[in-house]
Known about the structure:
This protein has 115 residues and is mainly beta. It has one helix at residues 62-71, and strands at 6-10, 19-27, 30-35, 40-43, 47-53. The chain has a domain at 6-71: SH3 type barrels (Roll). 9% of the residues lie in helices and 27% in strands. A hairpin with an 8-residue loop joins strand 1 and strand 2 (19-27).
Amino acid sequence: MVEIGQLAVKIAGRDSGNICIIVEVIDPTYVLIDGNVRRKKCNIKHLELLDKVVKIKKNPSTEDVKKELDKLGIKTIVKGKKREAKPAPRKQRKAKEIKAEKPSEGESKKGEKRK
């Protein structure tokens, strides 16, 4: 049987091998987990339940869950700083060649003024 506050190890997916705490029981096959994994809904088949049960309040924040893991002596994963995005390289436009000047409004092509 699954209890709120029970420790588990994620055995499937990208967070596999990390310890988590069951925060909420959604239905008989799904639970909400948090801890050294991303807080999300998870199938019970993807968890290996441990014997330890931690007393936590209802709907705890991620910080509360990590504090409980620290009390048990379990190291929590600390996210590093995000790298700054490099600016996208800009293409240099070729300089347009200046063609012969166009005749002004008052002049025709032959150089005579219109009246």
